Amino acid sequence: MTASIPRALQVSFDDEPLVLVDAEDNVTGFGDKAEVHRGRGHRHRAFSIFLVRGSRVLMHRRSSRKPLWPGCWTNSCCSHPRRGEGYESATERRLREELGVSASLRFLYRFEYRADFAGGGAEHELCSVFLGELPEDLNPRPNPTEIDDWGWYEAEEIDDWVSRRSGDLTPWFLLEWPRVRPVIAAQAAR
Prior knowledge:
Radius of gyration: 16 Å
Low-confidence stretches: 1-7
Structural class: alpha+beta
Shape: globular
Mean pLDDT: 91
Helix content: 10-25%
Strand content: 25-35%
């Protein structure tokens, strides 16, 4: 991150202690965020959150300052539990830091993936995926150090986006959307 970012706004740090895990999500150690993402990456805990209002999904464009996939669009919120944090406290913290909101979340599934970034570095995550409904009266206040743009998109718009401009989207989102989309559709139909 650049030195010009006010410390009060900065919520991601290269020296954040991330949780290294095996394929079964058992802790195997800890590593600084920057180190964990170097080279081909080290498997670590992560989470992705999809916030919805009916069939609309909150999407955001990652800050151009991000070292991996800057300027790419992705799901509502994604990050990592830090050393000593469980998923519940980590997701609550990150929703507050990144979007200025809180939401009740439900766990959907966990999956492992690896993705190499063309500019160097990689993600190797055991990623837990969560879904939450954001009430109409609760409006996001995105942190400008994390998010360059955002909006609510209908699921059909996202389907079109995925098929026509997948290069605009993060690799984890492209892996998650086929499994999350039917859950959102079923929830919206209730």
